[in-house]
């Protein structure tokens, strides 16, 4: 008998989990979601992400393991599937010790360590000599990362799932258990994989009060700074951030950002946008022609996304709700892409436990 599986949610976590599960022909998978790739809605975080690989998990934690285990998959896709919309990009990370106690500084704490765990994971890691740093920078490093064009990558995941027989349907549920009756076979699902992100705060049968939004605001421009750049914090506010990356296959350059906890505002803040652009030009003056300020930026759009942050970290565990077997995989904050395969592999292993059948989780 096949495993009838419902994956609830079509963000990067749901799609990656469905992708791995779909490698096993014994799995019959239905992805049910309110929002699908191509949608731009404040409830749907994945399209707004940069997205890239800048590890922030504390060494020895599950988060660390998930990010470590995701790099090989992203590297393989980048090398073998150019149509997926991922490319390698040189990354430069700067650290100022004075940022350590800010919200942004705590978010980036592991990333900006002088001797981080990921130095043995990413290619070409090297510390930047102090002589090459600005006086206000305490340390810096360079390595090869990836940047993902989410507008291409999310549909690519849908395509890979569909090729393997996965069925996609739009749906909205008041209670998670109701999803078990919406499997495309017409029969009740054996397990629901809950990848609803921030919506798990309101979904009946889950209602996770540990979830909160961490509002991110970006400006997408046509200008190209060259390398990906990140900084441990800013002088404009303890929950504002400075990062930039150029998306693959013409996706534009993302200028960020902010990390505003408990802020649900869906509308871009014009003053914050101006600060984001000024910070970007200050650290990467090559963005614009000499002598130009923010008027030299060719803006594509402004964007706001709500990172699904969860106190205590993501929830990747098995559960049972109203007699229905459930595997949760949500609450990844601002690192959904760079932990996507590690978390999905953990979720697949839990599906194996609850169904008693071993899926083949591979690319």
TrEMBL record:
Residue numbers binding FAD: 196
Enzymatic reactions: a D-alpha-amino acid + O2 + H2O = a 2-oxocarboxylate + H2O2 + NH4(+)
Compartment(s) of residence: Peroxisome matrix
SUPFAM superfamilies according to UniProt: FAD-linked reductases, C-terminal domain, Nucleotide-binding domain
TM helices/strands, residue ranges: none
InterPro entries, per the entry: D-amino_acid_oxidase_CS, DAO, FAD-dep_OxRdtase
Record GO biological process: D-amino acid catabolic process
Cofactor(s) listed in the protein's UniProt record: FAD
Entry's family note: Belongs to the DAMOX/DASOX family.
Protein name (Swiss-Prot/TrEMBL): D-amino-acid oxidase
Source organism: Penicillium oxalicum (strain 114-2 / CGMCC 5302)
